[in-house]
Write a structure and sequence with these properties.
alpha/beta; Rossmann fold; six-stranded mixed β-sheet; 9 helices; 10% strand
């Protein structure tokens, strides 16, 4: 059962913005992020009831970083406005990393008055043992974390796990797969797991990382450092980020153009006969 037994209270929500600036620029930023998140939710059917018009239940995964804090804030904002029907249960996974501040997230979530569950699983020891010292932990850590989240979603009868990946994450993943994996694949806004019982949602997929960084800074979220495990994102992802930064500097708007291309695929103009019947043309 959730550790935070209080249910979502609309009257608590304005308090969520108590540290946010009252500037016009922040209001525009908030409005833009909300519009993009809501468009993703509507366009890809994330909030569509799956079982006889019963609202979905979402397991919102919050790590303590800027992306997941922003995800939670925007979903709560949409709930407050009556623009999101899904029931929200926040989940944080304590992976046993040295120095992990165990009280930061529980205290913050209690202040918000949202139901939450803290899951403790020592995946850090497993990853430390199996990954060579000169390699990053991220890939194996991510697989272990995803498996645990699927399990928790089943235990809590959630329809989907909800992640804070944004547009830049999707673009970096696309180019990593293209350059290093020899395939065209990215992060979809909606995905069914291999077992066919839990969905994965990414409501922030249209949101730019630069906007999320500004939003998180303005909101003064209690950020938990991402380097407690002593590892960082692999060099491949760092290289993709630098590549995109260079393109964006030379041609502003390049990231958005590439992201639009991910939504405008023409199978007949590629060379994969699994998705286009060339033989019978």
């Amino acid at each position: 059962m959730p550790d935070g037994e209080t249910q979502f209270k609309q009257t608590n929500f304005p308090e969520f913005y108590r540290n946010a600036p009252s500037s016009v620029s922040f209001r525009k930023l908030r409005k833009r992020l909300l519009r993009q998140a809501q468009d993703t939710i509507i366009r890809f059917g994330l909030d569509t009831p799956r079982n006889h018009d019963v609202s979905q239940k979402w397991l919102v995964c919050v790590s303590g970083g800027k992306d997941s804090y922003s995800l939670l804030a925007l979903l709560l904002d949409l709930k407050w406005q009556g623009a999101l029907n899904a029931e929200l249960l926040v989940c944080n996974l304590d992976q046993g990393q040295p120095g992990f501040p165990k009280n930061v997230l529980p205290n913050y979530l209690k202040m918000l008055g949202v139901p939450f569950r803290i899951v403790t699983e020592d995946t850090y020891s497993i990853v430390s043992e199996k990954v060579p010292s000169n390699k990053t932990f991220c890939a194996l850590c991510s697989r272990l974390r995803r498996g645990i989240l699927y399990r928790v979603a089943r235990e809590e009868n959630c329809d989907a796990i909800v992640l804070g990946h944004h547009r830049d994450d999707a673009l970096e993943t696309f180019f990593m797969n293209l350059f290093h994996g020899g395939r065209m694949a990215s992060m979809p806004p909606k995905l069914m797991n291999d077992d066919g019982d839990v969905l994965v949602y990414r409501p922030l997929l249209q949101c730019a990382e630069s906007d999320i960084e500004k939003f998180a800074a303005a909101m003064s979220f209690p950020i938990i450092p991402c380097n407690l495990c002593g590892s960082q994102d692999g060099l491949q992802r760092v290289a993709m980020k630098k590549l995109l930064d260079g393109w964006e500097e030379k041609s502003p708007g390049r990231r958005e153009t590439i992201f639009r291309a991910l939504q405008n695929v023409r199978p007949s103009h590629l060379a994969d006969k699994r998705i286009w019947d060339f033989e019978n043309l």
